[in-house]
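Fold sample X.
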Amino acid sequence: MDVYKTKIKKLGATRSDVLNKQVRLIFREVGRKTKRQPYIRSAYFKNEKIFFTFFWQHLGQKSQTERPKRMRYVPCALDLIQHSKAEPTIKTNPNRKETLYRFTGLTPGGELFYVQIKENLKSKRKYFMSVFPDTG
């Protein structure tokens, strides 16, 4: 298993409303760089665009206690997506015509986390789905 060590620390806040503001500010900064849909470019996918379309939708499906845990890792996840060339775990779903890529990262504090990117096989577009800490 390849692990990418991020240089950016996770967010220090623990309250959901504070984290929500901080994460939305981070996404707004990324979104200002383009006139259309916000994206970042990925080193692993040969500088292809990774869009944020499904992140908030996916986060909204999680419980109130799970959301802050995930939001704390967003800066680490964006660093991983931009700079990691480590090999992810790949799962293909032929019924839905999509592929899920799960990258493994390590914060400067030594905490393990995962970043999930979904690729639509028809359009070849990639979406940042989720980031979550290791529970094991």
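Fold sample Y, listed below.
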Amino acid sequence: MRAVPRPVFAVLFATLLAVGLAACGDDDSTQATGDGSTTTVDDSGGGQYDYGDDTGGDAQAEDGKIVAVDFSLSDITVAPGAEIVLKNNGDQKHTATSDEDGLFDLEADAGSTSDPGTAPEEPGDYTFHCEIHSSMTATLTVEG
């Protein structure tokens, strides 16, 4: 068996190293959110999402928006009667449905934002869930 010459081995090793390092680089991509803004998504398969200043993997509330990511919903705090929407940053259809009948029921396909709904007028905590994925629960807090 003939040995590989050192210069050929060195070039092959350097090429493989460069490819490997490139694969470990920035796995983020920017995606439209459906409301005219964009969000940065980590495409590495880890499920981490960046909402600007927030740095967590779980859903993080945005002003007036309940956020769905993968299989979590964000808690949200709003003023009485405020407009609320469900912003779905996941890849499954989700809902944000009040546990009390008729208060609010928002629905959004993957990568979209629901039609607006209205928060209750009475201050308090209102639990809600995803009708499709019952383990997804969160709380809407009305303060004012």
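Sample Y note: The chain has one domain: 6-142.
Also: The domain at 6-142 is CATH 2.60.40.420 (Immunoglobulin-like).
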